[in-house]
Design brief:
Helices cover about 35% and strands about 25% of the residues. With about 325 residues, it is of the alpha/beta class. The strands form two sheets. Strands 6, 7, 8, 9, 10, 11, 12 and 13 form an eight-stranded parallel beta sheet that branches. A five-stranded antiparallel beta sheet has the order 4-3-2-1-5, covered by helices on one side. InterPro entries: Glyco_hydro/deAcase_b/a-brl (IPR011330). This is Polysaccharide deacetylase.
Length: about 325
């Protein structure tokens, strides 16, 4: 490969390669405004790594997240209340507010769908702790179906800290698919431990289990992502889709948007245009994966004609709330 082509290849893959932060220190919630002309960002976290200070930020218009050195920005520290007020007219803040308004239900609180006019769905796959290997059919099949009309194919993966620890080879395989521009992954925080009891009632189960350290479940997962070269998004999915109002506000207090689903395929829920579809990619739910593959096969002609597509979760939520008053 000639030098100019080699440089071009690096530039093309750069946006898909996330830095690995191996020596994270002083990782904490930190709110504020950051500006690097012409873009304003909302700061969510700050941390040190190998002697440099970094910020995890969100573009409140597009919901895109980014990590960069703090020295590159003009910064104004804020409380969470001040930051939300400052950015209150943005899609990001509108999505947070809607999630809080839908916080009463003990199951499936948060954003459940994108905009209905979309001819397609946003696909989310959960990677809960499991001894089974990654169900790779999901990823190979969506790439095969969409490669001629949509590449990379967007998918959102809800990932747990335990799954990252137990499945390094599967994680490397996913990262390679992204590096090859076959898929584009939005990484959703799904808690670190994802504890579950087969006997406890929902109000005392999953993250509602007494004694659960919510800060650890959120922030330790983010740090595990960063150590593995993953870019945290502004989305959070409750384990078991179980929460209460207090827990929802705890999560939005971290600047994270709870994401539910209106189409959990393994439970027989049928997706509509704009649906946020849920399947499990951890090998524990072959029924849901089989249903999704059948759905793909039924849409082959529509996919070829660009009449049925997979949508980036960030764009689905962004567009919905860009249109909201």
């Amino acid at each position: 490969m000639s030098l100019p082509l080699f440089i071009l290849a690096l530039l093309c893959t750069g946006t898909f390669a996330q830095t690995v932060y191996r020596k994270i220190e002083n990782y904490k919630v930190y709110y504020g405004w950051a500006r690097n002309y012409p873009q304003d960002w909302m700061i969510l976290r700050c941390f040190d790594n190998e002697g440099r200070n970094y910020l995890l930020m969100v573009n409140p218009q597009t919901l895109e997240t980014k990590i960069n050195e703090s020295s590159f920005y003009q910064i104004k520290p804020m409380t969470v209340g001040q930051a939300r007020e400052f950015f209150k007219s943005t899609p990001y803040q509108k999505a947070l507010s809607k999630a809080e308004k839908q916080s009463v239900n003990i199951q499936d609180a948060g954003i459940e769908s994108g905009i209905p006019k979309q001819t397609g769905i946003s696909l989310t796959a959960d990677l809960c702790p499991s001894h089974r290997p990654l169900d790779k059919r999901i990823f190979t099949d969506i790439f095969t179906e969409f490669k001629k009309v949509e590449r990379p194919v967007p998918i959102a993966l809800s990932i747990t800290g335990i799954w990252m620890r137990q499945h390094p080879q599967d994680l490397a395989w996913l990262k390679q698919m992204q590096a090859n521009r076959e898929i584009y992954i939005t990484w959703i925080n799904h808690s670190f431990n994802h504890r579950v009891s087969l006997k406890a009632p929902l109000k005392e189960n999953f993250l509602l289990e007494p004694g659960t350290d919510i800060s650890y479940e959120v922030l330790e997962t983010e740090q595990a992502m960063l150590r593995n070269g993953l870019l945290p998004s502004v989305f959070f999915r409750f384990p078991g889709l179980v929460s209460d109002q207090q827990l929802v506000y705890r999560i939005t207090g971290f600047g994270l948007i709870p994401v539910g689903t209106d189409a959990w395929l393994a439970k027989g829920q049928q997706p509509q245009n704009g649906s946020i579809v849920l399947i499990h990619g951890n090998g524990n739910e072959p029924v849901g994966v089989n249903d999704f593959i059948k759905l793909l096969q039924s849409k082959t002609r529509s996919i070829a004609g660009k009449q049925w597509l997979l949508y980036d979760l960030r764009e689905s939520v962004d567009e919905e709330f860009s249109e909201a008053p």
